[in-house]
UniProtKB/TrEMBL annotation:
Similarity-based family: Belongs to the radical SAM superfamily. 7-carboxy-7-deazaguanine synthase family.
One GO process term, biological-process aspect: tRNA queuosine(34) biosynthetic process
E.C. numbers: 4.3.99.3
Subunit and partners: Homodimer.
Entry's cofactor comment: Binds 1 [4Fe-4S] cluster. The cluster is coordinated with 3 cysteines and an exchangeable S-adenosyl-L-methionine.
Record gene name: queE
Keyword Metal-binding annotated: yes
Protein name as it appears in the record: 7-carboxy-7-deazaguanine synthase
Length: 218
């Protein structure tokens, strides 16, 4: 059984695939926060900008089989040329994503991207793996396509992750959890300046912005 909070067609807003059309499959649950506001202050990850509780979002639900979920996601891809792309996110997708589901997405013609906090092993077959470490949570994934670190995190500064075998190293300025866009988020504006300064001083790192919050889409 796979539990999905929501699924929607949009542009990937972050990282090296930013601007690419994708179906986002947002899995329910996370291992670093319950998703309840009352628990945020004591959570390992306390800045999450996402509601991943339950299965009640748009196109959400509980799916008995990998075939059922992959067919559901396929229906959200347009009938037009261009390589179909699904981004598995959450919550923490690696609590649920298994090889069976990756195979089923491939059967439907999708390339499979994953956004993970890196604390759980990744199944084989992922086409694009993005690891985004959180506070002092141990990262067990040692190779990925992109390392996308939310900045600044006092317990997860960039130097801790440069040993990871990644094609790209990104800093993503930390947004206020509930701000709908950048214009109404002075904390994010200040964090963007800090991330910019870090990248200028450490050119291995590149700046990435949450493009969807700039252009006002999901
Ligand atoms: C909601 S998480 C879900 C996937 C996975 N649990 C993870 O943390 O990578 C999706 C992406 O949003 C980023 N994110 C979450 N809260 C954020 C915030 N307040 N500001 C900037 N990025 C944030 C995460 O770091 C991650 O790259
Ligand atoms: N457009 C858009 N791009 C994204 N990239 C990563 C996201 C996520 O929440 O995993 C995300 C998201 O929520 N929306
Ligand atoms: S950002 Fe990722 S790791 Fe942190 S609480 Fe949200 S879903 Fe979990
Ligand atoms: Mg998001």
């Amino acid at each position: 059984m796979y539990r999905v909070k929501e699924a929607f067609y949009t542009l990937q807003g972050e990282g090296a695939q930013a601007g690419r059309a994708a179906v986002f499959c947002r899995f329910s649950k996370c291992n670093l926060w319950t998703g309840r506001e009352k628990d945020r202050a004591t959570a390992v990850c306390d800045f999450c900008d996402t509601d991943f509780l339950g299965t009640d979002g748009q196109n959400g639900g509980a799916f008995e089989t990998a075939e059922a979920l992959s067919a559901h996601i396929r229906r959200l891809w347009p009938d037009a040329p261009g390589a179909p792309y699904v981004v598995c996110t959450g919550g923490e997708p690696l609590l649920q994503l298994d090889e069976k589901l990756i195979d089923a997405f491939h059967q439907q013609g999708f390339e499979v991207g994953v956004e993970t906090n890196g604390t759980l092993p990744a199944p084989a077959g992922i086409d694009w793996l993005c690891v985004s470490p959180k506070a002092n949570a141990p990262v067990v994934i040692e190779a990925c396509d992109e390392l996308k670190l939310v900045y600044p995190q006092p317990k997860a500064m960039p130097e801790r992750f440069t040993h990871i075998n990644a094609r790209h190293f990104f800093l993503s300025p930390m947004a206020s959890p509930s701000a709908p866009d950048n214009d109404t988020d002075p904390v994010k504006q200040s964090n963007t300046r800090k991330a910019t300064d870090y990248c200028l001083a450490h050119p291995r790192w590149r700046l990435t912005l949450q493009m969807h919050k700039i252009i006002g889409i999901d």
